[in-house]
């Protein structure tokens, strides 16, 4: 499990994936969400602007698992 550090109270899912270099553009997240590839704390996510907080765990099928930590 990799860690992603954020310096804000929360970050939107699409911004987080761009910031971490997992996707290059916000548009790349749409098919991932439609295919159910992204899970937040074991629940499938369908909202690209879902708020992600420190302590959350994101699992992206075929990519990896990430824990969000506060700076």
TrEMBL record:
PROSITE patterns xrefs: S4
Protein name as it appears in the record: RNA-binding S4 domain-containing protein
InterPro entries named among the record's database cross-references: S4_RNA-bd_sf (IPR036986)
MF annotations from Gene Ontology: RNA binding
